[in-house]
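Figure S4 source data
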Amino acid sequence: MSNTDLVLDFSSVSMADVALVGGKNASLGEMYQHLTDAGVRIPGGFAITAAAYRHVLDEAKAWTALEETFDGLDPDDVTDLSHRAARARRIVYDAGLPDDLRDQVLAGYRDLRERYGDDVRLAVRSSATAEDLPEASFAGQHDSYLDVAGEDGLLEAVRRCFASIFTDRGVHYRHRHGFDQLSVALSVGVMKMVRSDLASSGVMFTLDTESGFRDVVFLTASWGLGENVVQGAVDPDEFYVHKPTYEQGYRAVLRRRRGEKAIRMVAAGASGTRNEPTPEADQRRYCLSDDEVLELAGAAIAIERRYGRPMDIEWAKDGLDGATYIVQARPETATSQSATTLRRFVVDGSAEVLTAGRAVGDKVGTGRVRVIADPTHLAEFQPGEILVATTTTPDWEPVMKTAAAVVTDRGGRTCHAAIVARELGLPAVVGADGATTALADGAEVTVSCAEGETGRVYAGAVPFHVDEVDLSDLPRPRTRLMVNLGNPALAFHTAQVPNDGVGLARMEFIISEAIKVHPLALLHPERVTAPGDRTRIATILRDHADGASYFVERLAEGIGTIAAAFHPKPVVVRMSDFKTNEYASLVGGAAFEPAEENPMLGFRGASRYAHPAYEEGFALECRAMRRVREEMGLTNVVIMLPFVRRLDEADLVLARMAELGLERGKDGLEVYAMCEIPNNVVLVDEFAQRFDGLSIGSNDLTQLTLGVDRDSAAVAFDYDERDPGVKKMIRLAVEGCRRNGIHSGLCGQAPSDYPDMAEFLVELGIDSMSLNPDSVLRTTQTVLAAEARLAGPGT
């Protein structure tokens, strides 16, 4: 054989060379050649080819022994598989390295020393020739070695990489995906070691890993070397960047979540690597700046554009030069292959929550718990059980494929357990701290990942069902069908339901769940009287510049996430509509809210916004809205004012908004009002002159038209949105909007609950209805039938 193809520099390989250098090395070469000019940094290095691997086995005459080793393999016999794989690894390792290959490897090493200095450290990574293909990811199946130094260290690492082609997990994975054990060869990549042990590293995807939503880059990060993130040993920081607005020139992090990052992996000289506790100060801060997140997102977008498909990318920041590098990129192999059928798991019951963590996927699974302390106990696992572990590694994959669900103490949504669970279609809850002690062996539990980004493990078998619909040919009605949504964690999933945007995004959900503190308590913590509340506020703000920046950041990211999920469709965001008792229940809120006998009719909605008692809080809300529109570039956001009682009140609030930089009509800003007070209907022509649309809140409009407290069980029998008087009010409102050329919509509960109410709205010619997500598909069919009936035969 020719010796010229045993070692190749990254500058001379591309994706056309997968058969020669494996997917990992081919991808590094592709990016090194074509994306460096676009600002994507790739460490220099070289590939030891698959031909070199075969040359090793040819020279050692090892093929026959390997064939005998795998003859009669039963991949489901974990013990037998382990014995055979160990024997195969020994055969490959003992084959050594022929002199010609050794010489070429050391020549490549000398080149790297000339480029980076004599003390350059190396990363030596395996790259299988069937690896990182779109239909099968071999990620993590073979070994890699970090912080390798010296000629002897490099040659030893290469031998160990070659031998790792027959890890237990690699043998099992190849069998599961239909690859012959000896047909897959191994290439080895040798590259400059990025000193992320002195900084940070992680993984990013060019889509949302749970929903498959394509318009974001999802990035995870932790201190030290990246193995902890991949293996799920840490709870990493998480960031989202919205791709469409990034490409329009906006530079803003869409959303972030700080992980605990309790340990970090660092280089340990000749002994390789080790984990150490992360200093508390570093646990409490993000390990990337916004500028670094955005730079990495730009690299991810460029890589995705080059490959033409969603990508799974590993990155590392060098603690010596401060730069970020891409160290691996492969096609994303699980979420991006979703079909056109929408399947939604819905939990129908409730039970005690035994533990909770980060949800992976959106499914539900029930089974009996099996806690596995370490890989030596894997043989005890029975198919259909719930696998519970501190973390998982690729060695666990043979049993994971038989599990009903997976729960781990540690890990984020890009850890090994999460990636494999997605590929296998399993529900998984990762980072559920204490799960291995909270869940008892043999106990029946239900693992739910169908309730947003928090995954829950319930005691017992909780009932659930699956809604399924083929989206490929579902027609769209003339009437715009939008969704009601307050929880940003559900936004990417909900956006996949056929829709025309968001008709009601509830700001108060974000305030109560993500902020938790009364806005005025954040601005004036000294006025908070409850000692416990003051302590909680101080704890929340200890890592933020001040209360105002904390409120604006959290609120903007929540609203921005919803707006990005549905971009460029309209997202109508209602400014805060808490009642005083609800505001008072926020942390510190009791010091700022009056006690009212009937908060439903009290100091709420627009009446608060320009009032001295809340004007500072409203200013924070407006700052957040400006950030969403101006810094994030999400100009699809429409602002809506709730409970606008009088025309003078409308004028006052609109003037105050203009002072705060939210002038109606400027930069395309539309402002709607809720139509939920009889005065809004009586004076519909006058209100229509002040707003771009009216959204009928049928819940409050029913309450005030019929004089029924909608929170009172005693008079619930008199509360009916279909009462003739209520329907007449709705008719007058819709006709008034049409007469004045503004948008008409309805965002109450009625059309979600009553098909005849949806038909009535179609007959009125309303522009849009905003529905609960779980009723959109059902109501779509009702609306399509009503529109066809109104159109008459032959249309």
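Figure S5 source data
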Amino acid sequence: MGFILRHKILASIFTLLFGVATVAGTFVYESVRNLPDIGDVKGVIKNQTTYIYAADGTVITRLFHENRTIVPLNQISPVLQKAVISVEDQRFYEHKGIDYVRIIGALVRDVKNREAAQGASTITQQYVKNAYFSPEKTVQRKIREAFLATALERNYSKEQILEKYLNTIYFGSGAYGVEAASESYFGIPATKLSVEQSALLAGMIKNPAGYNPYKYPTQALERRNLVIDLMAEQGYISKAEAKAAEGRLMSVLPKKQSYVGIAPYYADWLIRNALDKTGFNEKDAYSQGLKIYTTLDPKMQESAELAWKKYLPSPRDPDVSLVAIDPKTGAVKAMVGGKDYNKQKLNIATQGPRQPGSAFKPFTLTAALMSGISPDDRFDASSPQTFKIPGNRPWTVHNSSGESGAGSMSLRRGTAWSVNVVYAGLVAKIGVDKVIDAARLLGITADLNANPAITLGGLKVGVTPFEMASAYSTFANNGQYNEPYGVERIDLPNGQTVYKHKAEPRQVINAAVAYLVTDILREVISGGTGTRARIGRPAAGKTGTTQNYCDAWFCGYTPDLAAAVWVGFKDGNTPMRNIHGIKVVGGKFPAQIWSAFMKRALKNVPEHDFADAPRGSLTYISLCDESNKLAGEFCPKVSRHVFVRKYKPKNLKVCDIHKPIPVPNLIGMTQVDAIKALTELKLGSSVVNKPSDAPTGQVFEQNPAEGTGVKEGTIIELSISSGLINNQPQSGEGIAVPNVVGLTLDQAQNELEGSGFLVTGEYRLSDQPAGTVIGQRPPAGYMTQPGSMITLVISGEGGQVVVPNVIGLSEGKASQLLQSKGFSVVVSSDMKKKNVKKYGLGIVSSQSPGSRSRVNEGSQVTIYVTAQ
């Protein structure tokens, strides 16, 4: 029984082996059927033109190679031949097409290293692969390659095979064959190549793109020296020759290749970067006759070019870069990498990292919202301030304009006006690591250092316009990230589609966070530092300016398109202090270029508004403005703060710093003393003059009454005895200054001037709406004479003042008043008879700038004084 069982087992094994052998044999037979004929090298060269198309079918550029000169082996430097053999196939003269020794060695190393990393293709196999087969990697192709390599070795000598190989191999930068490569990189024929030049070319064969001396000089040099060492080890050159060759600089000619078409920087990026994600590479683009369909929109590209030419047309002007991305898909629609590709091949859009300045602040804002901070939370805006952040030196921060600030300011307002101190306080509160994490989520790939200055755009290296456009497009897409791409589809020459882009959006930040960031960045354009970026449809964005005006940015988006604009000199260190008469900041040329581009690019795109926050994703809490705690009954200033519900702060406590203030007894006090007493208690006042038996100027009624508990800022109404039946002040007592805080500038000026006062004003950062009066000197209720100067404090950009009206005043008084407010005064004569008749002699009849004009502090005012 045992014998029969063993017999059956052996029969089964034999049957199985026979079946496997049959299948394997059939597979091999089918693989090697109809192998291509081994012909002369001129008959196997592939030189098909690749076409790259824009989204509308327009040809962007064509890629082809006439740059190939076939030469016999005796016209190729022997040093180059030895360099290639030393690095690509040491046993070239010993094997018969397939190097079994090398294969076994590679397998051993693969098993030892537990990875399939070792290659074992001979020069003959490489030639066969390049000359006769497409680039796909299959077992069948490998078998066909091996059979053909063996056949080639039977029919041709080693010298003939080496000649074929050296005339067909690709060396990068459009150079096929060693003769073309020698001319392209060194400007000499292949017969004259030196040791180091030969080693450089031989080293590039393995990876023409990765060892390209133009793109990766460090890697190319290391690879060159490796080949030199191999040549010395294998006896092709002496150690002394090797040492001398390695000591010589890697010298190549300036790059000559350029792309012809409607978007050269886009084509450059596509071939060198975007194509890698498709399974094809630069070599394939130049040799395979592909049809590459891209995302480029020719109309948007034209809009981008026209936009920068409108504002920076001179060759002496700074350089410009612009990248536009469809936020819904990640499709790159337009790219300006510089102003002239023929003069500057560096693609600033993708290869020129620059410091982003305040354009980086939205990433800190994102991190803050995800850390339970509300855009309505308040921060100290006074400048300068020094922050002590663990792990860092004391950090002193100034606001960009030198503005001292005005106490606390909401994060929302601090973003719109790009207040540095607010953002320094913010990063001190949440930590640098959270800012880095947020930037990474949004699409920033640059090297980011854990330094608090990152919140103001102080980066280790910088970011590219490409990265910034990508990150801002994530905001536009409600927090969904789409990796930017340029290739939609690739077809082979026979029409077969071998690649098609597939979108893979990822929700990287909460949609409610993206909504709030967008809501805040809209205010940058509507009334902040980016008003020149207005485009007449919903848009959001952020300005950025670096120290010394070396870089200026505007990055912004609509629901349909995101774009980043950078302006600066390509050396990165030249200040832009006088470009067409202005200092270039993000809110000027970059914002204007962005606006011009977006208006034209979106001309035929229906207007869309940004999506609302998902239902229930936001929550509102009333907080005390001073303590940022839950508002109590006696908190004087309370505001409603919005939070992303998911990140809402926990365990908020009720404000404990505001207690009820008892109203004092003011009856019998003079108006001045009563107001002083209220001011000391942080209470306000309103004054009403009424007839009374009480002494003139004395308080005889108050509301609320003595002892009433009120909160800070409560207005106490004071009834002042006028002592007259007609309620007019007695002669010499003056009149009370009305309370105009909270009014608009025009309303306040009208009321004060209607009461006979002169009015000037100074602007200061605040969280109140721009143009709102936030303070006045003297205060409301102060008794003074008509004609006195009242100074208003107005919410707005610091460093600006309002010109008072001095028409009708004498020359002396007008000059004195203007100079007391910091103006420089120029006096001119007005000899018009009608004005002399109207005002009399020595009186100001007109002024320039006119009253209520908004000018910089210290500006010149010219007054025209009547004279005969």
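Confidence is low (pLDDT under 50) at residues 18-35, 114-118, 727-732. The first strand starts at residue 50 and ends at 53.
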